[in-house]
Amino acid sequence: MNKLLTLMMLSTMAPFILADNHKGNKTKEQMLDNPNFLIDFAECKEVKELVGGMLFLNDGVWKEIEKDPENKEKWEEVIALSALASNYSTVYDVWCKDMINKRMKLRNKAKNKMKKEKHHKDHEKSDS
Hints:
Elements: H1 2-18, H2 28-33, H3 41-67, H4 72-127
Helix pairs in contact: 3-4
């Protein structure tokens, strides 16, 4: 009975042990093959700059509307630019924000590690 129970436990645990979602260094090809991959870091940076550019253009159109509030074309332009900026902001928020936060955490972790190593080396020198 114990052998059967052990065999049953091992067979049900095997998929979890063999699952291929382990963290590690992934190559760019593996990232691109991921079904959830949409844009990379450089493209996220472009999206961020695009949103900033649209908001800057929108500000200029608002100043023109202040001069002539009856200009329907300018109202349509400001609405279109606002909608585009909003849509691209959503794309950035969904696809880029977590990626950039993870990258920044990794950079901070690497900096802290370098500081600790330098601090440790400084103590070794002072002890000599």
